[in-house]
Amino acid sequence: MERPRWLDEREQSAWRGYRRMRRLLDLELARELMRDAGLSEPDYDVLSDLAETPDRRLRLSELADRMLWSRSRLSHHLTRMQQRGLVTREECAADGRGAVVALTAEGRRAVEAAAPGHVAAVRRHLIDLLTPAEIAALDALTHRVVDHLTGPDDARR
Q: Which residues form a coiled coil (predicted)?
């Protein structure tokens, strides 16, 4: 068995700082989104993903993949969103097997009303605290890690 490569002091500080920052940032953004717009983070993720597509629709499977959720978990969440009039589900016209999630007019109004406050919170709690060089570094490192975790290299699993 290979010996672990323990983190040194600097690496450990960076790792723990990242974990604490992520939890605190996620918590604060979720609180403000709920307080100001009445939406949970998953609500906002669904609505914004749908709003960013040309026809305001996505296959349920594609939306689940984007959210890193199981189809079952997403389906239950969508049921609650449907009850609030934010989304609808339709049969997939292309193959009749899958479901398509569509943004309703109410859902579009909700995400458009929430977006300005949400982006202001993202700015206040992260972006405006960073220098342009730090934003460039954050952009580079997040893309590197995402590419590593979503790339074709299965050896990391």
A: none
How far apart, in whole angstroms, are the C-alpha atoms of residue 34 and residue 39?
5
- Total Cβ atoms within 10 A of residue 109: 13
Please report the DSSP string for 27-58 in residue order: HHHHHHHHHHHS--HHHHHHHHHHHTSTTSEE
Do 80 and 42 contact (CB within 8 A), yes or no? no
Phi, psi of 134 (to 5 degrees): -70, -35
Say if CB 11 and CB 22 are below 8 A apart.
no
Q: Which domains does the chain have, with CATH numbers?
A: 25-150 (1.10.10.10)
Q: Which residues pair with 90 in a beta bridge?
A: 100
Q: What is the pLDDT of residues 84-102, one digit of tens each?
A: 999 999 987 777 678 999 9
Statement: residue 156 has pLDDT above 60:
no
Please state the separation of Cα 86 from the chain's center in Å: 17
Q: In this structure, are residues 103 and 56 in contact, taking their beta carbons and an 8 Å threshold?
A: yes
